[in-house]
């Protein structure tokens, strides 16, 4: 602990007497400064114990009060007045002013040289620095042994909480709580979900300090919280949160930084190993999609822990051409792997640069944790889209991948976040077409009819829609419109005249119906 005014006053070898400010003795002393200036504040930084004989102060109450106010405003934490030279005793106006401002005032006897007080504080500061360095090294060794042990990251979290005298929590890359110590802090750590989510959207490493109390925690459980993202390549692999009763000291900050470094190394693993695992997963997925499921099973059983079993889906994520989506796709893949890993769910992931830009392909259990994670993650990334195949077996995954690609194409053209193959297979033709192209086609084809309807009698657009919906049946269409069939025949002749096309042509009817439907979308 740093030296405080209380420890200085209690030093019996200095023979100091406290005259004012007894309630403010726990302030840490950053330094001891001696000055005989009437205004020494330009040479102060705050946190000093100022020593003076008061030669320039005189005995005016107003000057003494102004002197105290200047020191207090400058952040001086204590004033020591040496008696026996300019002042035989500490002037009462100085005592009164110090008491008013809550500034500890100390009587320094003539037999106590100022240098003795400076040496006492300097020795205490040096001892504190030595203790900080020693404690930091001890903590680093302890945390390193914990990281190398069987429990790994969980052991580091436990040791860190004990070292800080508070609590610590570790979250994975998706923000889910993975370890907490002590056990009673689980609810407290769970309330930091919003703060962790904010950090997850920022490049790693980054941190946030919640001074005062944890979000949502009762006043009786006030604490100071620091949340730190863990990652070395701008992508957060996890998050560490610690809570303490008081603000973290410099020594505790060293300990926290050591834990952050160890956890980052543990979560990152070696880059070569991670790249090898990614290449293995992509190769296995390629084999499955190529129909070589039996061979893929043999390879995965020994090296990859097996393949997904049961009903699966293929999900393909991408972005419009030209979009810088590689990082977002990488995060989506990480979250899918983490979601599956938490519940022991097998999945295969492949990241590659395709003909239409970067693509992420995921083979996951139908409606499993990884499947749901992809659906949730793509909603959070503007510009990303997800195509989802129909449920299938591993042997059908090749065809399912083609389904997912077609669904992705529909999603990208329509500006949608995700499209299921079932929507493409059972829905309208319109979603498969570019929205702008369809709109332009419909407006151009129907413009003569719309211009007519704005200036003349007879609703040609509505009449055409009714006639086409009834497949050219005059009586049924006329009944829908509430007009005589001869009136409808006249209107259809006007449609042919304005468009310059015959309604007997099947292609013309199809184009008109498509244009009318596009106008309804």
Automatic annotation (TrEMBL):
Domain PucR C-terminal helix-turn-helix: 460-518
Source organism, top-level taxon: Bacteria
InterPro entries reported in the protein's UniProt record: CdaR-like_regulators, PucR_C-HTH_dom, PucR_C-HTH_sf, PucR_dom
Domain Purine catabolism PurC-like: 8-125
PANTHER family in the record: CARBOHYDRATE DIACID REGULATOR, DNA-BINDING TRANSCRIPTIONAL ACTIVATOR ADER
Name by which UniProt lists this protein: PucR family transcriptional regulator
Organism per entry: Kitasatospora kazusensis
